[in-house]
Structures are given as C-alpha cells and as structure tokens.
Amino acid sequence: MKTNFPALIEAQSLVKIGDIVGAESALATMAETEGDHALVAALDEFPAKDLLAIIREYDTSKESLVNLLVTPEQFAKAVVLEKRYGDLSHEQLRGMINSVIFREGADPAEFLYEIGELDGGYDALVDYLSERTKRVEHFYRYGTFDLFEYGDDVKTQAIDDDLMNLNGDTDASVSAQDMANVIDHDWMEVTYILRFQLPELFREVLLKLRTRYQNSAQAMEDAEADAQVPDEDDEDAPKNEKIDKGDDEEESAL
C-alpha cells in the first residue's frame, strides 16, 4: 500500500497478524499527534477490509477513536464487506453500526443513506434487522412496534400498494408510546429513520426482509415434511432380512 501515512502501514500490518487492538492504537496515536482531520484523511487510503476488521471489534460498550471519526462514506464501504465474516448472528454488525451512526453529533440518516448507496448495502441493513422482521413489518403497517397493538383506527393499516409509493411526509400514524421508545439508539430507531427519512431505502429493505423470511419459513416447512416421510429402505429392511435368512437355511440343507 503506497501512502504518506506510516501509521496506516503499521496498522495494516497489525491487522494482518490479528492484532486489532494494536492497529486501532496506531491509528488513534496518529490522531493524537497529527489531529483528527489527519486521521480522517488517512482513512480514505486505508483498505476497507482492514478498517472493517478494526471497527467491528468495537461497540457502544467499548469505544474506539476510529469509530468516532470514520466518515459515512468510509463506514459504508466497510459495512458492506461484513458478510465475509459469515457471522450468522449479525451481533457484531449491529454493535458496530449502533456505535458509529449514533455517536454524539452524528446524523444516523446520512450513514444509512451511504450504506444503501453501495452494492450489498441493502443486504447489510437486512442482516441488521433480520431478527426483527415481524416487528418491522408491524411498524410499517400499524405505526407501532407492539405486535399486540394495531393503532387507534383500522385505517392506519398500510397496504402493500402503499409500499411502492412510500414517502416520509408524515409520522402521524406512529403511536405516542413508540415515539417515546423509538429513540433507543438501536434497531427501532434505525427502522424509524428508514421509514420516515429514507422511505425508498426502507421499501427495498422491507421487501428483502419479507423475501428472506418467506424463504426461511418455506425451508422449515420442507424440512419438517421430509422428516415425516418414511424411509423406503427402512420399510424393506425386515423383509429382506427374512429372505436372506431363508436363503442361508436352504444352503445349509444342501
């Protein structure tokens, strides 16, 4: 990597040997000695995969100076690579997204927008919300995350046609309780921002969430159906065993 920032070379070398704490420290030291702006500029030259290796190890419980300074564009390029780690729980994905987009002074919508602009961005946001599909769908339809609430008026229910013409003009359908709880710096706030500030992005994410949920449900049904079908070989086994035994007795008689 050709760069005018020796700290980047050191950090990249440390990432390669698995010393993530050391890599983060090298970048933090650069910010301390040369200023925050120098680190932000330097990160434009830092490989996204190496940046990801650092920021995914930190969340709101363990802050990193890199997470506090990374720009929306830099962060988005790293986030779309997270699937390479094969983390089916997506726990670290959620942790790093929350720690970065909800940092003090940040505009979460700007970060989410930049993620959605890149190939793989929709999928990253679907991974982030994948365990909340039913509640995201319910929020879209009824303006509440409570699965047992359906709004004060049945007319608040959204229809699928609305999804194709979604806009962020109004949030009047959101319940007072959800408005109070939505600022959780977590998935509910992300869902709210997507729905009312980035409606086109919300539409694409919800469509993908639906597809993934339906595919998962179908796979489970198929697995259950296969488990209930008797094995033909098992049914024939006793019959074959009896025949073989008779053959043996006939050979002995001869």
Q: What features would you highlight for this structure?
A:
globular, 254 residues, mainly alpha
Protein model, in words:
It is a single chain. The protein is built from 15 helices and no strands. By secondary structure, the chain is mostly helical. The radius of gyration is 27 Å and the shape is globular.
Short description:
Helices cover 66% and strands 0% of the residues. It has helices at 6-16, 20-34, 36-43, 48-55, 65-69, 72-79, 91-101, 108-116, 121-129, 133-142, 160-164, 176-181, 187-197, 199-228, 232-253.
Walk me through the topology.
Layout: H1 6-16, H2 20-34, H3 36-43, H4 48-55, H5 65-69, H6 72-79, H7 91-101, H8 108-116, H9 121-129, H10 133-142, H11 160-164, H12 176-181, H13 187-197, H14 199-228, H15 232-253
Helix pairs in contact: 1-2, 2-3, 4-6, 6-8, 7-9, 8-9, 9-14, 13-14
